[in-house]
Amino acid sequence: MDGKAEFAFIGRSNVGKSTLINMLTGKKKLAKTSSTPGKTQLINHFEINDEWYLVDLPGYGYAKASKKSRQTWEVFITEYLLHRESLMTTFVLIDARLPPQKIDLEFMNWCGGKGIPFSLVFTKTDKLSSSALQKNLIGYKKEILKYWDELPPVFVTSSQSKFGREPLLNYISEILKAFKAS
Ligand code: GTP
Ligand code: MG
To answer: Which end of the chain is more exposed for a tag (fewer CB within 10 A), N or C?
Structure first.
């Protein structure tokens, strides 16, 4: 690659990574999406302009994935996250409907231990009531604070209603500004 800034999207299979990328870019068919998990199999770079990429990563925790493909995923993604110099930050996507999942917490703890910066992005918030959403968000934050002294940046989104698009894009643009100034 060419050293352009990269922003990666990661999370459990079917959490909505590819759909979020399409929502952010306003291009419905840019990243392939599917109601069956395991759609994204490669590290896909989407060039947004001459400054940066969004990077769609394959999902983890796909129960039907073979052991071999899980290992391949791990090596691939670990290498990418650990050694990609142009990677600015990673967005860890979380299905807002679910209680904290072990696999997500483990992944975040791994990132933290390796000093890989990440933010949390709650997805599919159109699928629950605002009171259920608030309850889940509070529960999630509490869980994270069991491991960490402070919360990472948190974004709350719906790719269906485009809720949360501006704050996420603003955050990316702030990071890009700092990157360019450095
Ligand atoms: P893999 O590539 O398999 O890892 O999945 P992914 O995380 O890229 O998920 P994808 O974007 O393909 O979305 C999975 C399913 O969730 C699709 O049927 C999407 O339409 C649906 N979906 C994603 N985001 C939202 C959302 O914000 N709201 C609703 N209602 N559905 C969503
Ligand atoms: Mg995908």
So the answer is: C
> Distance between CA 82 and CA 71 in Å, rounded?
16
Domain ranges of the chain: 5-181
Per-residue confidence (pLDDT) for residue 62, from 0 to 100:
66
Least distant ligand from the CA of 93: 1
Q: Between 3.40.50.300, 3.40.109.10, 3.30.420.10, 3.40.50.1820, what CATH number should domain 5-181 receive?
A: 3.40.50.300
The sheet that has 52-56: what strands, in order across it?
A: 44-47, 52-56, 5-11, 87-95, 118-123, 154-156
Among 14, 24, 60, 157, which is best to mutate for testing ligand 1, by the most ligand atoms less than 8 A from CB?
Answer: 14
Low pLDDT (below 70) residues in the chain: 1-2, 38-41, 61-65
Axis-axis angle for helices 165-181, 17-25 (nearest 10) = 80
Q: Does ligand 1 lie within 6 Å of residue 69's CB atom?
A: no
Ligand 1 center to residue 15 CA distance, Å?
A: 5
Q: Which residues surround ligand 2, an ion (CB under 5 A)?
A: 17-18, 39-40
**What mean pLDDT, rounded, does the chain reach?**
89
